[in-house]
Amino acid sequence: MPRGKKLRINDDMSWMDRVVLFLGEVGGTAVLMFLGCMGCVGAITSNGVISDEQMSWAFGFAVLIAIQIFGHISGAHISPVVTLAAFVLGNVSLMQLPIYFLGQLFGALTGFGLLMVVTPSNYIKNRTSTAKVPGVCSPAINPKISRFQAFLVEFIITAILSWVCCAIWDPRNSNKLDSLTIRFGFTIAVLAMTAGPYTGAHMNPARSLAPALFNGDWDDH
């Protein structure tokens, strides 16, 4: 992706380049949702439980795979927050923002939709319990903290993720990109391990929207 210091409004991309950009974000976000959320389907396991560590690593490695496959195509932002950070740094143009956002939205819906195809719906929506339990990957705030505290947690970890992206895009880091996918994967895993028990560590509007839409869980969205 091009680097710059000024906000960019227009670009010289062809319509085919824009289609490829869109498809790259669809594919990357779909991989994130399918593999990451599949690693959170605890109800389908023999004991019905998946550890927080496994869920964190599932998302970390899902991001790693998505970047490895689609990073050279669209940058594999797979999150509107990352795309906004790239826009502020001048790495993407204003004209590209809706392409990224739509690609991420369709990708999230596609990835989670595929997960629902291969998994019995009662295991995704957690309808095996009589209690109201949020579905797999749906936004869910720990009842021991307030909504304001949950907001702060999500704000802080999303800011940290954005800082990591900005540091990697810094031209002064251009000769340190050989382990890029690993660094991103571990970043997501660590943020998920630490903040997951608080809010689920979503850090990504597209990643939150698809499960909420499919599962009908809007209380903590």
Question: Can you characterise this structure?
Answer:
- Helix content is 62%, strand content 0%.
- It is an all-alpha fold and 221 residues long.
- Helix 1 packs antiparallel against helix 2 (52-74).
- The protein is globular.
- The two termini are 32 Å apart.
- The model has no long low-confidence stretch (mean pLDDT 87).
- It is a multi-pass membrane protein.
- The chain crosses the membrane at residues 20-45, 57-90, 97-118, 148-169, 181-199.
Keywords for this entry:
221 residues, globular, Glycerol uptake facilitator protein, 8 helices, transmembrane, mainly alpha
Strand tally is 0
> Describe the biggest sheet?
none
Shape: globular
Q: What are the segments in which pLDDT stays under 50 over at least 5 consecutive residues?
A: none
Question: Helical content, roughly?
Answer: 55-70%
Within CATH, the superfamily carries the name: Glycerol uptake facilitator protein
Please write the CATH class name. Answer: Mainly Alpha
Q: If helices are DSSP runs of H or I spanning 4 or more residues, what is the number of helices?
A: 8
Strand content: under 5%
Order of helices and strands: HHHHHHHH
- What CATH architecture label applies? Up-down Bundle
Decide which structural class fits the backbone.
mainly alpha
- Tell me the count of domains: 1
Radius of gyration: 17 Å
Predict the CATH topology: Glycerol uptake facilitator protein
Transmembrane segments: 20-45, 57-90, 97-118, 148-169, 181-199
Organism: Sitophilus oryzae
InterPro entries: Aquaporin-like, Aquaporin_transptr, MIP
Subcellular location: Membrane
